[in-house]
Specification:
Elements (H helix, E strand, L loop, with lengths): L1 H6 L5 H9 L3 E3 L2 E2 L14 E3 L2 E2 L7 E6 L28 E2 L8 E7 L2 H8 L7 E8 L4 H9 L1 E3 L2 E3 L3 E8 L2 E8 L6 H8 L4 E9 L12 E3 L2 H13 L7 H9 L2
Parallel strand pairs: 7-13
Antiparallel strand pairs: 1-2, 1-3, 3-4, 5-7, 5-14, 6-7, 8-12, 8-13, 9-10, 11-12
Amino acid sequence: MQKILARAGLGSRRECEELILQGRVTVDDQVVRQLGAKADPEKQEIRVDGERVRPEKLVYFLFYKPKGVLCTNYDPSGRLRVIDFFARVAQRVYPVGRLDRASEGLMIVTNDGELANLLTHPRHGVPKTYVVQVAGEPSDEDLKKLTKGIWLSDGRVRADRVRRLKRQGKSRWLEIVLSQGHNRQIRRMLARLGHKVMKLKRTKIGPVSDPLLKPGQFRPLRPDELQALRQAAATGKPRGGDRGRRAKAWAGR
């Protein structure tokens, strides 16, 4: 059932599971609360909050999130959200994963809940690449700690790879690759080492990048890019020493 709802553009599979658990889904006027329930959208009437669920065409976009824009679908303060840039898109799309408000860079925006699950679940470990401006000059030992692992409140986290880029005044640019997805992970890791993040930009999702895309712009994903993302999820591996804890935490979000 959650797969049917996700394919209809009602959110990620995890979000659709919540709709079921909350008793907001009916099949032929019967409330469905079991996550393993099955239905046939061609023969049965499926509704969410009383509204008929109709399959949508699946769409996929690569979006450059500007700094200051929120990834949430709802903000009571009325601040600018990622989905506001897609107001003219006919389908109900949503961002895959998150970038915090102070960060910028590439995101996948889609109505395909199955793809969203592939790209965000820690089991698949799809890497994301970031360029980060940090205050001061991280030592060789600092870089080793980033890849070896640092303990934070939600477990041990680490980067897949780190390399120095250019120096700028009293700051240094780094390229950091992560296949984990802890909240504000890069900022928290570097803060633990005494280096404040001044700017953070995601430049690559798995094998997909676009240096020509400007903040606020988006374009459809090409078929070869979509295939490459699925392949990255199929071959990815969870990273770090707290796999079980991370999977349980993800499932409970």
